[in-house]
Specification:
Layout (H helix, E strand, L loop, with lengths): L1 H16 L1 H30 L10 E10 L2 E6 L1 E2 H10 L3 E15 L5 E8 L3 H5 L5 E2 L14 E5 H8 L9 E4 L2 E9 L14 E4 L14 E9 L5 H18 L1 H4 L3 E6 H6 L3 H31 L2 H9 L4 H38 L13 H27 L3 H4 L11 H36 L10 E7 L10 H14 L4 E7 L10 E3 L1 E2 L13 E7 L3 H5 L3 E4 L13 E5 H7 L9 E3 L6 E7 L14 E5 L9 E8 L3 H15 L6 E5 H8 L1 H35 L1 H9 L4 H33 L12 H27 L3 H7 L1
Parallel strand pairs: 5-10, 7-9, 17-22, 19-21
Antiparallel strand pairs: 1-2, 1-11, 1-12, 3-11, 4-5, 4-8, 4-11, 6-9, 7-10, 8-9, 13-23, 13-24, 14-23, 15-17, 16-20, 18-21, 19-22, 20-21
Helix pairs in contact: 1-11, 2-9, 2-11, 2-12, 9-12, 9-14, 9-20, 11-12, 14-20, 14-22, 14-23, 15-18, 20-23, 21-24, 22-23
Length: 810
């Protein structure tokens, strides 16, 4: 211990004598370690952190897979009859819980509010195993028809709306037209389902005695199962495949093309963000390697100036292991200082990351510099110190007493082995930087391609907002006649409004409502998987006009398509292409979600309804005025010449004039909707560009340091060259050629890495190839350019070499 303290004291004195070296080394390490700490904190919470349930490793999601538009094995929701058969026939699970997302209006005298609500089975909380923060959760039977309505609140909503008062327990609140008794509050850590958007409350899921509860073709349930102890995911999947095969035999018409998928819940939660987070983790790892290479270069250069010191210590009896230990102590001390700086860098970086990731990362609110992350930072700092300090320490320990104690020691050139090590580290830095630069370039090109993708609509000057009207039991007293129709009439009369409509699914969303249908006049297809399949949209008149969607043929819905008229339908170009090749679809009849067939009256242009990165899917549109039973959550789209804030205020007043207290939510512009759909990609893009830029700066600093040190070591040589007649241009060119040679070697190695990275990024790239020639060409040009620019100052210094220096020292 005494020897260690002695080494530490000496290391501190040694580093204090060279403050410039120490500050530069610590800054490089702080950037590298800080970037790793920030990204690891995200990975630790989102990918590695346990879900807020009891034994989450035993929880699995069960999907019904289906075939649609030529693709098989697509995961989807579950029908009520199939759920009943799964529960009755499966033996691998302790239980199956089901849930369905919805939205409900909190009806209150002051500040009515729109709540994100999940309807779930009564066994959900007991099966997940998370105890309530206050009160109780659902009891058996509370999800059956006729049971008294109860509700469990989330802690976030409880504190926001009720200031955390326990008196709210056993009180009642009204959602839509139903009054619920508050029975419990779940802790903030709990969420069902786990996603980027937090849930406000949970109510029992009661299966109504309607056609959906008996129809195997009506899929809307999400299912989670808890495996019995000893059961495996593979065994459960095997059993579910057997059950599915049995159902296919019993119900061939509805189950043909249907399958099953059993996936751990953790994988389902992280599936969409895992590739990007692992890419970023790998990227910051490369940045740390570059930072280590920089500091190793600095230590190698510093070690060459300490040869006389090492020789004296060796002559006084210090063995090589003691010299190595002293140099490693200094390296680890530098790394720990860099780690402390890295914590500050990570703290600032996380604030920016959380602001960007609020709506795209699940469990983002739990991301923090917790003890595990800080332990990771300490460990990586120590390992980093050992990694970049080992080579300089070994080089320093190989003392040549006769040469190193001579008077010319301080003037000797850098040894050949150390010179090769310096150059090798610079080549590695350039190669790693090129890999990151190429990856960032691919994402930039991909994002640019997405932004310029034709969505099939005109988002300019379009305001959107959502609302919900609780439906009465009878569709005759529908929300359209009582609410949507009158509101649309008032909104359209507002000054500056060009067009206004409603839809159940706003375009450019990552979800949808779809199903199969039957074209009248053709033989009925018994297998559901072979029937025409399309996204289903409920819209009003002027919807297409408000969003600037072109009518290719026929007509749009108008106000004459109302109650008492024949049902009509619009289809998009993709539906027409797939199902009416060489035919005129106008006038054809299609049966979908209704016993009465719809008549096709128009063909709309394709819209990328499920995202800019998704090709247009077959779609059908039905008139909201003729489908009152499907008017739940609806979105208004308003095209106007006035500012979005003015339109929103006027629209709010129009809604209040029809239904006082009706809450509006999600008030935004259509351009913002499109921008938010790209938020996840934008987060990855911004972070990778920042990381690549950091790598580029560190590489430039490393190249500058090596070239400057090399020029210093070659002062005598360069002076002699000048004395013998070498011109300034010749000396400058010689130094720049050395830099270009290092850059060429780094580019050659880095190009292979960039090609490999492109294959890894295949799922994240859109509109460009993973080996995009333009991106690789820019990267291969940029890195040598940076290397040469970083060498300009050392080259200019070399060109000013004084011949008298060489004469004086020889």
């Amino acid at each position: 211990m005494g020897t260690l303290l002695q080494d530490l004291r000496f290391a501190v004195r040694s580093l204090r004598k060279q403050p410039s070296f120490t500050c530069i080394a610590v800054a490089c390490l702080a950037l590298g370690i800080g970037a790793n700490t920030a990204i690891f904190s995200v990975v630790h919470t989102v990918l590695l952190g346990a879900l807020p349930y009891r034994e989450p490793e035993r929880l699995v999601r069960l999907f019904e897979t289906f075939t649609a538009n030529g693709k098989s094995g697509l995961p989807g929701s579950v029908s009520v009859p199939n759920l009943a058969d799964w529960r009755a026939q499966s033996t691998m699970f302790e239980g199956l819980l089901v849930y369905s997302n919805t939205n409900k209006n909190l009806v209150a005298d002051v500040e009515p509010e729109r709540l994100r609500v999940v309807e779930t089975s009564a066994n959900a909380f007991s099966l997940l195993g998370t105890p309530p923060l206050a009160g109780r959760t659902f009891r058996a039977g509370e999800d059956e028809a006729g049971a008294a309505p109860v509700i469990v609140l989330s802690e976030g909503f409880w504190r926001r709306r009720f200031a955390g008062r326990r008196a709210v327990l056993d009180s009642t609140i009204r959602l839509d037209s139903t009054t619920y008794t508050v029975i419990g509050v779940m802790p903030d850590a709990f969420d069902l389902p786990v996603s980027a958007v937090r849930i406000d409350a949970w109510t029992p899921l009661v299966f109504a005695a309607n056609s959906d509860s008996k129809n195997r073709g009506s899929h809307y349930l999400s299912v989670i199962g808890r495996l019995k102890r000893g059961a495996t995911v593979d065994a459960a999947y095997g059993e579910m495949k057997t059950i599915t095969a049995r159902l296919l035999h019993d119900y061939p018409g509805e189950m043909t093309g249907r399958g099953v998928e059993v996936t751990p819940v953790t994988e389902v939660v992280t599936r969409s963000v895992k590739p990007a987070l692992l890419l970023l983790l790998g990227a910051v790892g490369l940045v740390l390697l570059i930072a280590c290479a920089n500091v190793a270069n600095l230590l190698l250069a510093r070690a060459s100036g300490r040869k006389r010191e090492v020789a004296i210590r060796t002559a006084l009896g210090a063995n090589p292991s003691r010299i190595v230990r002293q140099f490693l102590t200094e390296a680890v001390l530098l790394a720990l200082a860099g780690g402390l700086g890295g914590v500050l860098v990570a703290f600032g970086s996380l604030r920016i990351i959380l602001r960007l990731a609020a709506n795209s990362l699940p469990r983002a609110e739990g991301i923090a510099l917790d003890p595990v992350v800080l332990a990771f930072t300490a460990a990586i700092a120590i390992l980093t110190g050992l990694a970049f300090g080992l080579a300089p320490a070994l080089h320093a320990s190989r003392a040549d007493l006769r040469q190193d104690l001579s008077d010319s020691t301080g003037k000797a050139s850098l040894g050949a082995a150390r010179h090769r090590a310096l150059k090798g580290l610079v080549v590695a830095e350039i190669a790693l930087s090129l890999v990151l630069f190429a990856g960032a370039g691919l994402l930039v090109r991909s994002f640019s391609s997405l932004v310029h993708t034709d969505a099939g609509l005109d988002a300019r000057n379009v305001v959107t907002f959502k609302t919900r009207v609780a439906l009465a039991p009878s569709p005759d007293s529908s929300g359209y006649v009582r609410f949507y129709g009158p509101v649309l009439e008032r909104v359209r009369a507002l000054p500056g409004v060009r067009a206004a409509g409603i839809t159940n699914m706003l375009p450019i969303q990552q979800f949808g409502m779809n199903g199969d249908m039957q074209i009248i006049g053709r033989p009925e297809e018994k297998e559901i998987s072979k029937r025409p399949f399309a996204e289903f949209r409920v819209v009003s008149s002027d919807f297409f006009k408000a969003l600037g969607i072109t009518m290719v043929r026929g007509r749009e819905f108008d106000d004459h398509d109302g109650p008492g008229t024949l049902p009509v339908m619009l289809i998009n170009e993709e539906f027409a292409r797939r199902n009416f090749p060489g035919e005129d679809p106008i006038g054809k009849q299609i049966r979908a979600w209704s016993p009465t067939p719809y008549t096709v009256v128009g063909i709309a242009a394709n819209v990328r309804s499920t995202g800019l990165d998704q090709e247009a899917r077959p779609e059908v549109y039905v008139n909201a005025a003729l489908n009152p039973q499907r008017l739940g959550n609806m979105t208004f789209v308003i095209s106007a010449t006035r500012s979005p804030s003015e339109v929103a205020a006027a629209a709010r007043a129009a809604v209040a004039s029809v239904s006082p207290g009706q809450p509006l939510y999600g008030i935004t512009s259509m351009e913002t909707v499109i921008d938010e759909s790209l938020q996840g990609r934008k987060l990855t893009l911004v972070l990778l560009v920042v990381i690549a830029s950091l790598a580029l700066v560190l590489s430039a600093a490393g190249i500058y340091g090596v070239m400057a040190y090399t020029v210093t070591q070659r002062t005598r040589e360069l002076g002699i060259r000048v004395a013998l007649g070498a011109s300034t241009a010749t000396v400058t060119r010689m130094v720049l050629n050395d830099a270009a040679t290092l850059a060429a070697a780094g580019v050659g190695i880095g190009l292979a890495g960039a090609l490999a990275l492109g294959s890894v990024m295949r799922s994240m790239v859109y509109g460009v190839g993973t080996r995009d020639p333009a991106t690789l060409a820019i990267a291969c040009f940029a890195l040598p350019a940076v290397a040469i620019l970083a060498s300009v100052v050392p080259a200019a210094r070399a060109a000013r070499a004084d011949p008298l220096v060489a004469i004086r020292t020889e």
